[in-house]
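Session log. Operator J.P. requested a structure for one protein chain; no other inputs attached. Running the standard single-chain path with token output.
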Amino acid sequence: MGMNRDMMARLQQMQERALKAQQALAEQVVEGSAGGGAVSIAISGGLKLQSLKIAPEVVDPDDIEMLEDLVTAALNEALQKVQALQMEQVAGLAGQFGIGTPR
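Structure written below.
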């Protein structure tokens, strides 16, 4: 038994909405920072690095490890924000199509 036209139209509509949501997510930019803003990273929802800024005062040739830690912390914060955006997007799409989380 094949799918009826209504079901096919709904599936196509879901696919189109998901694609639009994915494109919108890719255009959003979030920032992560560490060291009181000494290191900041901007990353898109599509996981593309937009910018990396490092304050000159945290560049110490004798303590590269601290700078590495700051960059890592800023990147992790930015990635957590992207993940939150992704979860919001999935929840929004699920709600649009009447798909709830199991209780």
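Operator note: Residues 64-96 form the longest helix (33 residues).
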